[in-house]
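User: Hi! I'm working on a homework problem where we have to compare a predicted structure to a textbook description. Could you give me the structure for the chain below?
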Amino acid sequence: QVQLVESGGGLVQPGGSLRLSCAASGFTFRNYAMSWYRQAPGKERELVATITSGGGSTNYADSVKGRFAISRDNAKMMVYLQMNTLKPDDTATYYCNARVLTRDRWGQGTQVTVSS
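Assistant: Happy to help. Predicted structure tokens:
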């Protein structure tokens, strides 16, 4: 059974940093690209970052370029999102995503709140 479990969210002040983690199980993790999405109240789900299966290439939404970094550890079956210089607009529930066997798989999400 494919499972993704996010952690690391919390309340931070503007300008602060946070690192999100996603623990994967139930599939051959090293064969799949991984992504982070986020969704804020009243907004559509937004693709934040993607990393290729081997970790050799990454893509980012324009809104987070230069501030966020996605990475992965295939031996540990983990994917991370380092978030720096956080802004209130980054407030959202963050979800780990994998497209496995043509289906999108999602974790339960972790809440990130950026507020003074």
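For your comparison, note the following. The mean pLDDT is 97. The chain is about 0% helix and 55% strand. Good luck with the assignment!
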